[in-house]
Amino acid sequence: MAAGAASTGNWSRATGAMRAAMVLWVCLAYMRGVCEDWSPLRLLVLLVAATLVARWFLNAVRPPPSTPCGTPGGPPVTAPRVRLRDGRYLAYAQSGVSRDRARFKVVYSHGFSGSRMDSPRASQELLEELGVYMVAFDRAGYGESDPDPRRSPESAALDIQDLADALGLGDKFHLVCSSLGSHAGWAAVRYIPHRLAGLAMMAPVINYRWRGLPRGLARQLYGRQPVGDQWSLRVAYYAPWLLHWWMSQPWLPTSTVVDGSAPFPNALDEKNRVMALSNCMFHSRARLATQQGVQESFYRDMTVMFGRWTDFEPTDLEKPPFPVHLFQGDEDGVVPVQLQRHICNKLGWVSYHELPGAGHFLSAVPGLGDRILSTLLSSPASA
């Protein structure tokens, strides 16, 4: 058997060498035809130089390997974690009342650059009054949750289901999603509708290339985004393998959301942005989120959210057997309110709550966390 394996390996290497020789011969023949006056030696030198440049480029754009928590050279594990279906670990944080006393169990999916420490910021008084147990978690690749190189909207929904099962949240639970983390909410409607008692999404991020959006309006609103954000989304969609390299080049236009440089039209959003930069909260949050590698947290998030949605899009979804609430500020500088309105009007079964004078970061709006949770848990089908 060992001899057979060695023979197979030698044959494979021989076949690879023959293929390489054939490719080289074809390239030389083609270049000889294009550059008739060039000698074979000159063409060979040019081809070798082009190969070396291509190899250098491929190495340059390859993202560095991730450093999972608990592995040699990786960050330490400090949070409680559960084991998922594929062996990965998901870190989480609990709040509200204890599980055994809870009337409602709520899972929270954080937004871009967030962590398990985020929440809708409902008051402890309300959590006690309603009997709410809430668990927030680091999404795959964030904080202390293991990276998932095959991450997708579907895997995001299944991670939530696995978390709920590992913590014994019962047959049905409620889900609250924020910003970019809301792709898990749409995916939950598609893949695990039998597990949800209700869903609330806070300013869910939109992919400008979803087919269900009006093309002219989407193109117009996309053009109003900062140039760096436009280019970052283009790369995430057309060449996701290039995104890490692109975002690391200071001479290229890159995402203003990632570096915190974009001003917001909403006064509260802008105030919080400036404060987070001045007191270093923005950078400390980013360090926590990306401690296992920026590729598997921020950039994987961008490629999943703004890449190709091949299985479904939100406007393809059918009405689920539970209430869905969507909260959107009319001064959101990240998600155009016009496109959010279109999605909710097209679906019909989404209870749309437009918030006058509110921006994108809804958890920072005083009292809004209580309103969101109360609305979700008081919906008829969620009792």
Question: Distance between termini?
Answer: 63 Å
What is the number of helices? 14
Strand content: 5-15%
Largest sheet: 8 strands, mixed
Query: Uncertain regions: pLDDT < 50 for 5+ in a row?
Result: 1-12
Global mean pLDDT: 90
Tell me the CATH topology of the largest domain: Rossmann fold
Tally of DSSP β-strands:
8
Strand order of the largest sheet: 1-2-4-3-5-6-7-8
Number of domains: 2
CATH class identity of the largest domain: Alpha Beta
Structural write-up:
By secondary structure, the protein is of the alpha/beta class. It has 2 domains: 81-211 and 311-377, Rossmann fold (3-Layer(aba) Sandwich); 223-305, no CATH class. The protein is 44% helix and 13% strand. It has helices at 2-34, 40-61, 124-130, 153-166, 183-191, 215-222, 227-238, 243-247, 256-259, 267-278, 281-289, 295-306, 337-347, 368-378; strands at 81-83, 89-96, 104-109, 132-137, 173-178, 196-202, 324-329, 350-355. An 8-stranded mixed sheet has the order 1-2-4-3-5-6-7-8, sandwiched between helices. Strand 1 (81-83) and strand 2 form a beta hairpin. Helix 7 crosses helix 12. The protein is globular and about 85 Å long. The N and C termini lie far apart (63 Å). The relative contact order is 0.13.
